[in-house]
Amino acid sequence: MDKILSLIEKRRTSWDAAKAFLDAKRGTDGTLSAEDAATYDKMEKEVTDLTRDIERLQRQDEIEKMLNQPTSAPITNIPGKTGDKADEKTGRASAAYKKAFWDNIRHPGNPAIRDVLEAGADGYVTKPYATNNLIDRVRLLLASGRQSAPPGNPPAGFA
Question: How many other C-beta atoms are found inside a 10 Å radius of the C-beta of residue 2?
Fold first, then answer.
């Protein structure tokens, strides 16, 4: 890195010298003599050569950094966990769902817990209902004498 910085500084001073030379040697009509043009071309070539050297060294640094990176994920305290977002589970397999499930078993009726449990796999959210409404609808079905609703036609009150 120090070599790159020194080359960048050298290129800067060479370019400044080339510009100063060009400004000093221009004639009244704005042209250079053949001898001065050849000298300026040498100075400009030195700047472009330094630029190529700098770019080459920067590419070498990038390749070295790439080759020095680890080839696999390091072993952590949790085997099998790499820390990627892809490792996090969603839906019913998520940690939030698992925690909410067991909290609901311990303390039934908490609305915050119910919200997490209603979100199914892949973000599917079930239609919210109250337990009393469900019981009333089941009693209504039983009272009407139907064992089950015909396919595709929900019973009254279920739509």
Answer: 6
